[in-house]
Fold:
Amino acid sequence: MKKIYSIIVLLIMNIWVYSQEIPQSIVSVSEAENQFTITFNLPNYIVKDTSLLSSYNIPEIFKYIDIDYFGNIDDIGYPELPQLTFDLKTPTQSSNFQISVSNQITQDITLNHRFMPSQDELETDTTFTIINDYYTSDGTIYNSSSAISEPYIVMGQTGVSVSIFPFKYNPQLNKITVLRQATFTINYTSLKGAEIPNPSPIQSSFLSSFFENYPQLKSASTSRGRYLMVTPPRFENRLKCFANYKRNIGYEVNVVSTATIGSSFGQIKSYIQSQYNSIATRPDYILLVGDLIDIPAADGNPTGNSIDNPITDIQYATLEGDDYFADAFLGRFSVSTEDELQYIINKSIYMETNIHLLAKKAKFLAGESGSWFGAQEDQFENGHRDIVKNTFEPNGYICQKLYQPTYADAFIALNDNPLYYLYSGHGNAEAWMGGTFKIYVNTSFSDIKQMSINTVYPFVFAFACRTGNFASANSIAKDWIRQKNGGVTYFGSSVDSKGSSDNAIEREIFGDAFTYGNNISNIITLGKSRYYKRFWSKTNRERSRRYMKAYNLLGDPSLNTRGIGCINEYIFTNDEIFYSGSNIAYKASTTIQNNVNFVLESNSNVTLVAGNSIKLNPGFKTNLGAIFQAKIAPCNNGQ
Structure:
C-alpha cells in the first residue's frame, strides 16, 4: 500500500508541480575558461495553505509554495522549501569548484502560518516530525542561496550538480526572503590533458538532455548502438534470433554466456565493467536474460520488506563513480522458460516494427485509496492528470482515465490495444489492487493470461508498492512480460512507495518523454535522474536514492518507442529464424535481400516490403503453416 496525505488545496508532501527541461528564461548558462556564469530569474509562484489533520491528527495550518520546475529541500522536520537543481558538464580533470552570487534582487514576504516541514516517506511511520529548535531559530542553517556537488561521472562525462535556493525562511519572524534575480559564478581549476573519446551518438543524445550545457553533436554513424546481452547457456539458441534481429536493424550486438564469464553478480559485473572500460566495446544497452536463478539481482532484499534495501539491477549499469546515475541503459528479460523468452521476443520485435502504424491510445488506471492513514480522498489520479494534459494529449494520444475501475474495466481497456498502460494505486509483489479492483498472479493462476486478448503489447508502468519486485516467485511484474499477450515492458517499484513520490517519478519520466529520446530505457533513465534532482538534503539523500534503485525495467532497453519505420535497405548478413508466434514486417525504401539463412517456422508471419527489389537467396525457407508476404511498394516511413 501507499501512504496518502490529505490536503486543503492539493497534494503537498514532496511538493510537486509539472516539470520539463528547465527553460532558459529561468536558468541560462554561459562558459569561459575555468568558469560558468548562470543567470537566474525566479518564475511565478503561489503561497498556499495545507493541512495534515487526517494524516497526522495535526490541526495546524501550514504554508507551502507552488512553483513550476522546482523540487524541494528534503530534510525531515525542516521546511520543505523549493529548490532548483541542474547539472553542468565540466572538463574531465577539474576540481576546486567555488560558487558565488551577485546582482541579487530580493523581496520579503510575511506568512500568517508556519512553513510546512518535510516528513518521512516510510509507510510504517505516521509520526509527525518537526524540529522545534529550528522553528524557534532565525533559520540560518538554511541561509545559503546555492550549493554545488562534488564532481561525478555519467557515461564517461564529468559533471557537477548545481542547486539554487531562492527562498530563505526565518521561523522567528515567519518571513521569507525571496531571491527574484541573481547571477551565479562558478570558478574551478582544470588540469590540461587529453579529454576522453567522444561518447557514442546514443549516449550523446541522452547527455544533451541530462546536462544543461551539453551540445548534441550530429553523427554520421549508422549504428543504432552497441548492445550487450548476458544469458545463461539454456537460452543461448533461442536468444540468437533476437540478437540477429537487432544486428539486422543496425545494432552492434555481443551475446555472452554466463558459462563463459561466470554466473555470480561479481563475475557478471566484472565482465560488463571490462567491456565498458574499452571505448571500442563500451555498451550503450545491456540486457540481462533470465530470472534471478540465472542472473542474480545486483543488490537488495528479495522479500521487498526492507525499504532502504530494494531488490535492484542498477549496479550492473553504474560503471563509473559511486553515484546512482546509470552509465548504460539496462533492462532484463526476467523469464524462466524458452516459451516465456519467445513470447517477450515476439512482442518486442512486433512492437518495434509496428508502433508507428498503431493507434495512439493510452490507458490510465488509478486504484481506490481506501482509508489507509486516514486518507479522505483519492490521490492516485494526480500524476495521471498532469501527464495526460501536458504530454499524452498534446502528442495526439486518445487517453482513457479509469479511476477506481472494476476488474472487467481494466481488461476491457487492455484489450482495446493501447500503446501505454499506466497504473497508480495500492499493490504488492503479486497484485495491483484497490477497492473492487485487483489484477493478480500466483503459481497456478494468472489474471493476465486468463483475461488478456490484446494484440498490441503496451509499455506497462505501475506506480505502486512492491509491484516491481521481480525477486518474488509470484511476481506481477514478470507476469506482464512473460505472457503471450500482456505487455512488452514493465516498470515498477520493488519496495513500498509513497503516493507523492510515485506521482513525482511518473511526471518526471513522462514530462517530455516524446521530445527527448526514442528508446524506452533512455526515457526512463532520464526521468529517474530528474526525479533524483527534485530533492536536496543537507543530511540524507537515501530517500531519493532508494527509488533510483527500486524502480527497474523489465524488457528490451533499446526498444524504440516510436518504431523503426522505414529503413533504407535490409541486407541480412546474420541468420534469422522466425519461431512460432513471430509477427514482423521489414520495410525498406530500396532493397531487401538475404545473404544468409532466413527461415520461417510454422505459425510465424513475416512480411517484406521494398521500394525497388526483393532478392531471396539460398537459405530462404518457409515451413508448413508459416505466412510469408513480399511486395514492391513505396516505403513512406513504413506506411
The chain has a mean pLDDT of 89.
